[in-house]
Amino acid sequence: MCCDLKRRFLLLYATQKGQAKAIAEEIWQQAGAHGLEADMHCISEMDKYNLETEKDPVVIVISTTGTGDPPDTARKFVRKIRDTTLPPDHFSHLQYGLLGLGDSEYTFFCNGGKTVDRRLQELGAQHFYDTGLADDCVGLELVVDPWIDGLWLALKEAFLLQKEKESMSSDVNAVSSALSAAPHIVHELSSEVQNLKLEDGVKSSGVLTQKLVDLNLVASTGDTEPSLVHSVPPVSQSALNIPALPPEYIEVQFQDVHGENPHLSSLISGGTAFEVPVTKAIQLTREDAIKTALLLELDIADTVFDYQPGDAFCVICPNNVNEVEELLHILGLSEKGDCLVCVKVKQGTKKKGATCPQHIPERGTLKFILTWCLEIRAVPKKAFLRALVECTSDAREKRRLQELCSRQGASDYTRFIREPNVCLLDLLHAFPSCKPSLNLLIEHLPKLQARSYSVSSSNLHQPGKLWFVFNIVEFPACPTRAVSRKGVCTGWLAELVAPLLHPSTNTLDARGGSPSTEKIFIFARPNNTFHLPADPSVPLMMVGPGTGISPFIGFLQHRQKLRKEHTDWEFGETWLFFGCRHQDRDYLFKQLRCFLENGTLTHLKVCFSRDSSTAEVAPPKYVQDVIRFYAKEVARILLKEGGYFYVCGDKKHMADGVSDAVVDIISMEMQVDRLEAMKILAMLREAKRYLQDVWS
Ligand code: FAD
């Protein structure tokens, strides 16, 4: 009976940065091994599929972008299904399973997927498989892998039911007899599924069930602690289910001519990049502060780049030059660094719809590609590990890599790769017999993304200048990383501006060191609502501990200028909540007092989380504690006076704490329960009066 089953399903992906596409390709790949055929399309290719007439199951993989929007490639699709004239049974013939991708660091987690899911349900479509919501914050694979594992059985059940449905509707008599035999059918269906399951286990060509033949492959018996390179039972003694080997699809040719590299502005897909000089650099923190914060000033006067206070922008950054050299050395390509690389799709590749990654230029040197195009620090995905197995000669190393990408080794993967943010170089050091080829790196490493920063100035206050503030990200050495590292972008910027760095004068005048000739490429980050209210008389509260203060400096500069220029205007009350560890080490802008003194700021509330206090009642440590202290004022401004509430900075440790405090304040002041208070906060968010600009 199973060979009669219809085995095609429609696979749609809506991707922004390529993750949803990569996952869809993984599904497409595995489908073959399960005897199924995935008809895969980008959701934007609406001429290639038709949901209105689709009879087969549909699988949708969709990511989320911006502040909870579906990816750009899904815009047209979403517009279409949102058509309010569609009847509620429009998609009643449709069976689908949806996998949403998102990042719980952001408020509207997986909202791209949720939006499509909700609308398909409203239009009568049925789930044949539960929706999966994968979180990039903890690792997409924690949900994606089991979701894909379960998909095959769900699809086969869907095919069986579909087949029964079809035969039932083909003949009214058959329907009645089928109905009378319902218990039997149900039994037959479930035994069919069982058979398929068994058959899968035996036949599956994609999932390699490998018996551990030689127990000597595991390290010495005295070694009881697992590590990146060493496993212990049960993993070390298990038969492993490892993913199918992803087909290679890229072919690389070196041209021994030393060529011209593309212009850096060609690295961004839309918009324009501007090359601007860094004119000042100031260290805002003292040497003994836990984190080092820098303020940089860019000269944008000779460009048409424009911004509003509250905007963020992107910096195009390179990988660390030493890491690139090291990688070239390990790949045995040190001599070829300056050669032009020609990247093509491999002839006869089994990868469906294989195309050259868009972030790899047609003509660029090897060094250029490794420096500007590939995120060499990315945590290797399991498919990459699987591919690396094939380039590893040592049997023990091979086995460990297999374990790390296997189902049995899932928690080792999380513990030794995902959580410590192990990168390709760390792996190549730990597994020295692994010698991947360049094409593998191009196939598996993601695009090196530009990093976003909030503007920390006002173009009204200082035309032609742009300030931004950042912490230098530090990753200390650990068992899986022999050397300490700095963040890709912040480490590079810190090095770049070192010659002009002025030790903390901590002044808002940003009088940095000597003029510099260093230039960086920046471009605008669209879609921002984190702006001052259009009406200056509206009161506002700003919460920005640490570098979260950054956009509020821009707000305050702007307001200060407006107050000077428009003495007849009415300006609303302004509150700023700032916090840091130590008053004398990392109070980034002590001159905030100037804003207080000239009336731009009505209230400045600061707290220091690590300073000891001799006061009888300990002062509040964190901004959320201070906010609770001013509950009545928060409620007045937010609920009675139609004011705005802005939160900027660290998501994990601060923004959630602040919104919890605000929910409690609403609940207390309005005498409603927490759930009701949360709804009110959601309404304030919707009305864009509670605004967040948060990052991890
Ligand atoms: P990366 O190398 O990208 O590392 C950053 C993160 O990657 C770490 O936090 C960690 O989670 C992970 N990671 C990578 N490698 C390792 C490793 N080996 N060990 C442990 N963890 C690792 N930042 C500011 O400082 N100021 C701002 O004003 C600001 N504004 C922003 C505005 C927006 C809209 C967004 C989205 C982000 C903003 N950020 C801001 C964050 C900023 O974009 C960068 O993420 C940050 O500066 C780090 O970049 P990086 O390249 O130096 O670090």
From TrEMBL:
Stored CDD domains: methionine_synthase_red (cd06203)
Primary location: cytoplasm
Gene Ontology MF: a single term: FMN binding
UniProt keyword Coiled coil present: no
SUPFAM superfamilies according to UniProt: Ferredoxin reductase-like, C-terminal NADP-linked domain, Flavoproteins, Riboflavin synthase domain-like
Domain spans labelled Flavodoxin-like: 9-152
E.C. designation(s): 1.16.1.8
Catalytic activity: 2 cob(II)alamin + A + 2 H2O + 2 H(+) = 2 aquacob(III)alamin + AH2
Keyword set includes Cell division: no
Pfam family, one: NAD_binding_1
Residue ranges of coiled coil: none
Listed GO CC annotations: cytosol
PROSITE patterns: FAD_FR, FLAVODOXIN_LIKE
Domain FAD-binding FR-type, first and last residues per copy: 271-533
Domain of life: Eukaryota
Localization per record: Cytoplasm
PANTHER family per UniProt: METHIONINE SYNTHASE REDUCTASE (PTHR19384:SF84), NITRIC OXIDE SYNTHASE-RELATED (PTHR19384)
Quaternary context: Forms a multiprotein complex with MMACHC, MMADHC and MTR.
Protein name per Swiss-Prot or TrEMBL: Methionine synthase reductase
Organism field: Rostratula benghalensis (greater painted-snipe)
